[in-house]
Design goal:
Elements: H1 7-14, H2 26-38, H3 41-45, E1 51-53, E2 71-73, H4 83-98, H5 118-129
Parallel strand pairs: 1-2
Bound molecules: zinc ion.
């Protein structure tokens, strides 16, 4: 692979400026840098196109018409979390798209707790392969 994913290329490919308040999202930007460092280029190449919605907490409301329609939402409250948690969350949501979980109609199985949902387990396993640490509050018993 000659591409070499980096933060500027990632912003060019996946970030629409009106959806991402870069000035207010330092930790989120750092987490995207970490994503570029950890995720193999082949993964980026085979990703469907998506956009990232990362608003400033000061935005009370807004209307967007994102194209493409796959959107990773990254809450402003992430800026109050430890960097490792932000890194993990960004990697985890990215993994969901790579694994095409957005295409599954009934991805939530009602009688299985959220953390034990197959899609959650699968996304966490993938980010572990990429070098992320699953946060304590997402560790499963057994
Ligand atoms: Zn998830």
């Amino acid at each position: 692979m000659v591409m070499g994913m980096n933060i500027e290329l990632l912003f060019d490919l996946f970030v629409q400026p009106e959806l991402f308040d870069r000035h207010a999202r330092d930790k989120t930007v750092r987490a995207l840098q970490t994503l570029c460092d950890r995720v193999p280029d082949e993964v980026f190449v085979s990703m469907p196109t998506f956009s990232i919605l990362a608003p400033d907490a000061k935005v009370d409301g807004a209307v967007y018409c994102p194209v493409p329609e796959i959107v990773i939402y990254l809450s402003p409250s992430l800026e109050d979390e430890p960097q490792e948690k932000v890194d993990f969350t960004v990697g985890h949501e990215f993994a969901h798209i790579y694994l095409c979980h957005h295409e599954e109609d009934e991805s939530m199985i009602t009688w299985i707790p959220y953390l034990d949902q197959p899609t959650e387990v699968e996304a966490d396993e993938l980010v572990k392969q990429w070098g992320y640490t699953v946060p304590e509050d997402r560790r499963r018993v057994g």
